[in-house]
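User: Reviewer 2 asked us to show a designed sequence for the structure in our supplementary figure. I'm pasting the structure tokens here. Could you produce the per-position amino acids so we can include them in the response letter?
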């Protein structure tokens, strides 16, 4: 999402940017609401999760839109020793609501290689970490 926001420095955009060249962005606002948890099963094992609801207000020369982004993330971490642990984490994002006809209509989980080609994206990571 940060790469999209970096493109919002001026009010008129060239083709290939967040907006087609014939549109002007007047304002873009994001409001995030988040709930998260962590549960320690044992001193060596815990799980955590988060749900984030993002409400966008997109005001362009072609009209207003109010897209919504729903994100869910889960993680399980198991300490094997003081310096080594195993973890698995996953995240899912869905873009809903009004369409803007821009890159903001595509899901993008931070840390993923790129934005999805659709309104949905799921990423998973499993790793052994040695500190």
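Assistant: Here is a per-position design you can include in the supplement:
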């Amino acid at each position: 999402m940060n790469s999209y926001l970096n493109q919002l420095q001026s009010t008129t955009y060239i083709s290939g940017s967040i907006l087609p060249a014939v549109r002007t962005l007047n304002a873009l606002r994001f409001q995030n609401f988040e709930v998260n948890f962590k549960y320690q099963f044992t001193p060596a094992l815990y799980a955590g999760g988060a749900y984030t609801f993002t409400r966008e207000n997109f005001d362009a020369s072609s009209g207003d839109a109010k897209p919504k982004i729903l994100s869910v993330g889960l993680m399980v971490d198991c300490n094997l020793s003081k310096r080594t642990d195993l973890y698995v984490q996953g995240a899912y994002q869905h873009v809903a609501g009004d369409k803007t006809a821009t890159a903001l209509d595509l899901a993008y989980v931070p840390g993923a290689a790129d934005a999805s080609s659709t309104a949905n994206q799921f990423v998973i990571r499993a790793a052994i970490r040695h500190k």
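For the response letter, you might also mention the following. The mean pLDDT is 83. The domain at 28-130 is CATH 2.40.160.40 (Porin).
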